[in-house]
TrEMBL record:
Keywords annotated in UniProt: Oxidoreductase
Zinc recorded as keyword: no
Pfam family, one: adh_short
Protein name per UniProt: SDR family NAD(P)-dependent oxidoreductase
Amino acid sequence: MNETAVRRTALVTGANRGLGRAVCEALAGLGHRVVVAGRDEREAGRVAAEIGGDTLAVALDVTDDKSARRCRERAGAVDILVNNAGVLLDGGMSPSSVPPELVERHLRVNTVGAWRVSQAFLPDMLERGWGRIVMVSSGTGAFSNGLFTGAPAYSVSKAALNAVTVLLAEETRDRGVLVNAVNPGRVRTRMYPGAERTPEDAAVDIAWAATLPEDGPTGVFLRGRRTIPW
């Protein structure tokens, strides 16, 4: 069973709308204190006010070291980190023609951004001997699924994010911290407006991964509530 009986503090990046907001609502619904993190602090504040309770809003640009440090100072130590912030800007481009600067932008946000924020909050988790980090990944970054040539920069950034997941999980193994990646599938957000799956449905899977029990898996790729190949 998930540890929903224990109230934790959870921070979600890219939480101003869509899937990030739905994850905040799902975790708050489980009784956890939620920190809504987004580049637009006013929008984050609006979401926090609508969720209610002691939900906190913080500004966070995952591509900026100073912003990540300020976010940690403002939010304090957290038990759960959901790295949801991401971009998809190369839909329809090909691996042979996608501009390298666009590849770099995807990596800065989707991969290094999640890595940076994890580094900001992981020391507190290790000190307390309990933590959950969830990387919101994609099937487009899974070699078992076949990398998606129609969004090459996005696919590479998510494959790299999966690698970061494994590295952090190995470093923290048997220290009370579980680090996993979730493939939520195609979710109806600004990235995929025509997708069939709702953010609320996908958020349930992410919230489950964010509240795994002590004997839960670490360093794995999850779809729904099962492990899938990288």
